[in-house]
Recover the amino acids of this structure.
């Protein structure tokens, strides 16, 4: 049988049965996960009605018939709160949906007509699409698995820049009063751990991203459990290993070490084993514009965080993730969100900047043969493009409403097409303004390039 | 070897090694679990210093040397927030501690002198005491395991009295619009489930206790998960079983049935299997006075709830709990809390009332040979006893401060010594007033009969 025929035959057979795709959405907090997932569900529900999905081939060819929400398979995982998100967007004035905390999922059933094959008419087929939303912060914990407590402790203390140091000042002063061989009582340990968690929370509020351990920021039911009460130990390192390992079980060092191990085994690994391993496709959302607005230390920190986060997708044979969990994600999208917050002439630069921000991880992925594509998109478009005249020159501008409802018409500035140099930061050339969503009543949500991202992530399953 | 010698020899051997006791504390919400556990830890920490523990033999004999908090064994369980509780009590003005939500634990190490045996001097020995606090509401879910969805649904709908009905009105109207064979979409199901959970919450706020399923009220990380989105189905019952079972998988009936089963397997059973089975001793706290104050419908409801709750301690060979989990609790205390809210002359009645409230369960326990004793106690005494003169007669009264700080001197009324009859409710003879805690600075907390309860629950382990 000639090769192309085998291929087509397999396609035909494939179409005969229902197929399934598990698509995961992640990003660090405020990257726009909730808006993306809300828009994704909304676009698919409105496909063939009023959604604008020209870049999604099945929609353009009018083969996508509709999408219905059905019961999710795992009854113990919170459902993604789509209705609540839509209710926020449709309220008066419209509000951005509440961010999700932790993992959630939603199952859609898509119906579509298959493409004609050699003159045969396409049949109606079904694709079951599982959408999973989870915090990117959880992926920052992967490298913790290649450490033991001592090496992790050193790595954490090396990392902090001058401003991050400042947020951790109270914790540093307190922990300096204790020696690793000391027996520290439970309540004092809880206090120290609380100071450490507070320093992470402060750093996050100040716009930093590279924060570990991830669950310290979103503890859920583990709030108050000893597994979330450890911290790095300043003043000791590799040369002290032998002496530290000889300490008794109740010493500060051994107590922290035990909790660190418990965190690895009972918090980090279960997520990868029970969820991550089962994802087929993944999109990683990045708020590049927010970081650009926040200055060089935070931008650098985001870059670090993303490099760490992307390690979960490096499927090179010898990579950590592959050795531990044999995941199966076979296609990846990375997307700079909130593209509607710059003028369209800047979108190409936004993609280029995202690609340079992720240059190293992307190289690793390509080497490991994981297909990856970068996008700029707006999940829910909040602005319109206008032209204004300044100094006799016509220039594009954005029109929309600020979060306080004030009408705005502005040009936020140029996006650099590569990692910004000192000069850029000195000019302070970029002014990110938050817009509120536009009113929409039961219509398809306006977007930028959601259809392109969908085509990349699931187009091949809708043939 | 004569029998008493064997016994003493075993005791001596026992003392040689460290021993362990897992003591669990439960009660329905507002029964006073947090105050009890806080006081328990506080009394043991102050034993031999300023705690008044005359009814605890080892303390009276000055053999109890002290108690220290040490690391708990399960790092994934929240630690009981003892320090936070003490901080509340020591704040100005003093406040009752925040109630706990879910399970928490704390480990104490007690050091004591063993009793002299035949002229030998006692040695110093150690008892490791694990204290576990968990919501009594979780025990209300046990009977759910002997039902399938249909019989559970019937049992729930049978139960509601006139006032409970009223709280469930919105849910009843909504669910009446759907047929069991209908395919109800996810968002509508979520709405109906939300109305059901709201009816339970309203009933609880109105003072009702017998509420099921327990996790609907304290969802934690399961918030928004389908496993917490089911409800009874009015209008169908046993005679319809065959027709219902034949319905397709996506029908309302089958969907609810599936979730109910998931709740049994993944929510109810794990608590019994992973926690309950390992408890050695148990105290059940009951706010009898609060219920007495709330009128006949709520008192009746509490009585029902307690009968259900106590089934988890019925270790008769053929009992549900024994068949499923082979638990090992070998001694049980039941206690009417807040005894400081009535005058001391009423304490005997309070115990008698508690015993009649639990008459049937106590009979079952005695039959199953589980030692059980009833107490009245105040974990943290908030009042002092005074005498006042009314109509020329001297009468005991309580002095303390109301929650608003107002000084109070009052006689709350007589406690009936058996289940109150109509006449009692018509007289409205009981007036429960909440007092705020008395200021205490680093001293042992004042209490009533905590020492008696401790002697019953752990005295035999401190010989």
């Amino acid at each position: 049988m000639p090769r192309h025929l085998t291929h087509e035959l397999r396609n035909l057979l494939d179409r005969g049965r229902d197929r399934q795709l598990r698509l995961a959405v992640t990003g660090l907090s405020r990257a726009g996960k909730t808006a993306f997932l809300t828009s994704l569900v909304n676009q698919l529900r409105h496909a063939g009605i009023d959604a604008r999905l020209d870049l999604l081939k099945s929609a353009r060819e009018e083969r996508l018939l509709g999408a219905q929400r059905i019961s999710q398979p795992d009854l113990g995982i919170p459902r993604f709160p789509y209705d609540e998100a839509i209710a926020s967007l449709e309220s008066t004035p419209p509000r951005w949906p509440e961010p999700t905390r932790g993992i959630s999922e939603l199952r859609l059933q898509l119906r579509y007509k298959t493409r004609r094959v050699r003159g045969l008419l396409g049949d109606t087929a079904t694709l079951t699409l599982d959408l999973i939303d989870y915090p990117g912060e959880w992926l920052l914990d992967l490298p913790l698995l290649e450490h033991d407590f001592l090496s992790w402790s050193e790595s954490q203390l090396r990392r902090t820049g001058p401003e991050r140091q400042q947020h951790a000042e109270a914790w540093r002063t307190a922990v300096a009063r204790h020696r690793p061989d000391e027996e520290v009582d439970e309540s004092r340990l809880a206090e120290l751990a609380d100071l450490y968690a507070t320093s992470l929370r402060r750093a996050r509020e100040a716009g930093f991203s590279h924060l570990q351990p991830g669950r310290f920021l979103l503890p859920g039911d583990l709030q108050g459990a000893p597994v979330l009460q450890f911290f790095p130990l300043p003043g000791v390192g590799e040369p002290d290993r032998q002496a530290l390992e000889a300490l008794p079980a109740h010493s500060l060092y051994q107590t922290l070490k035990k909790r660190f191990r418990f965190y690895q085994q009972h918090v980090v690994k279960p997520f990868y084993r029970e969820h991550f391993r089962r994802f087929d496709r993944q999109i990683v959302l990045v708020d590049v514009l927010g970081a650009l607005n926040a200055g060089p230390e935070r931008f650098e920190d985001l870059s670090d965080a993303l490099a760490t986060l992307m390690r979960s997708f490096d499927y090179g044979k010898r990579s950590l993730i592959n050795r531990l969990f044999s995941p199966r994600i076979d296609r990846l999208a990375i997307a700079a969100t909130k593209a509607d917050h710059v003028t369209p002439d800047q979108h190409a630069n936004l993609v280029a900047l995202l690609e340079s921000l992720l240059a190293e991880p992307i190289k690793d992925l390509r080497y490991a043969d994981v297909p990856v594509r970068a996008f700029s998109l707006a999940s829910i478009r909040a602005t319109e493009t206008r032209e204004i005249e300044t100094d006799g020159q016509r220039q594009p501008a954005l029109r929309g409403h600020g979060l306080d409802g004030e009408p705005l018409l502005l040009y936020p500035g140029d996006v650099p097409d590569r990692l910004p140099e000192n000069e850029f930061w000195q000019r302070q050339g970029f002014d990110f303004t938050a817009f509120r969503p536009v009113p929409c009543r039961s219509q398809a949500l306006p977007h930028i390039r959601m259809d392109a991202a969908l085509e990349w992530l699931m187009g091949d399953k809708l043939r």
